[in-house]
Every structure is written in structure tokens, then in C-alpha cells.
Amino acid sequence: MRSLLMRYATPSIIGLFLVSLVTGIALFFHVGPSAFHGIHEWLSMVLILGFALHVWRNWRPMLSYMKGKPLAVSMLVSVLLSAVFFLPGSGEGGRPPVFGLAMQVMAHSATEVAPALGTTPDALIARLTAAGYTVGGPDQPLADIASASGRSTMDLAGALIGGAR
């Protein structure tokens, strides 16, 4: 078993990295099937196992990297580049604008949103109630309705457009 794991440690990293590369580029440019998001997230988790096996298999050479400046410099640069995304005004991490729009809609009440959906506030509240949401009143923000019901705003969005999930 150990030899099998050792034999596939580096090839698994290469394969999973290529999948991560392709799906990451597609996500960055907002192209490709929606499955790319799940593929990218889940197989990146599997990549951790491949990385651990690779480090285990190549422990002695890795120790020499840890003693030199190149790894320290690379780690510092990586942390600094990552820190940029935590600065104020860095946005939603490149998410499509539709997510920002959805969050703006969720900040408003059924009374405010109903006309945009071609319905009345009462009909919209009835739709949400039928979908299992707890609605405190017509002026309660939609995000608060989702939260009070223990559901996500994306679930509530599905109910708003008639596709109660």
C-alpha cells in the first residue's frame, strides 16, 4: 500500500493541479458550466491529500528548501499578495456583479421588491410562507426573513422567482 501511495503522490498533484488550473481560470473569467465551482472547491480539498503525500515522499529534499531563502521569500510574497484581498475596497473577490445585485435586493422588503417581480407584496409573502419561510411583516428585509427561517438568501431567491427550493 505504501509503495502505491508513494508512486501516485506526485502524479496526483499534477492531475489535480491541472483540474484546479482549468476550473480556476474558467471561474476567474466567469465562463464554463456551473459545475466548475464545485469541481474547483472539492478537488482542491483532495489536492491537499496529494500535497501531503508529495511532502511525505520527498521529505529530505523538502528539508533543504526549508533551510534556504527561496521558500521564505516565496511564502512572504504569497502572504502579501493574499493580504491585498483583505484591504478595504477590494470588493467581492471577483464575484460576478449579479451577486452584488442579489444582496442589494435582499436588503429590501417584500413591499419594495414585489413590483419588480410583477406581483403584490401580499402574494409574495404568501409565496414565501408557502415555501416555509417565517415572515414577520411586509416591511421586513428579505435577508432577515431568510435568516429568521434558517435558510440562505440564495434559497430565498429561488422562492422569490417561483422555484421554491
TrEMBL record:
The chain crosses the membrane at residues 12-30, 42-59, 71-89. Keywords: Membrane, Transmembrane, Transmembrane helix. It comes from the Bacteria. The lineage of its organism: Bacteria, Pseudomonadati, Pseudomonadota, Alphaproteobacteria, Rhodobacterales. It comes from Rhodovulum kholense. This is Uncharacterized protein DUF4405.
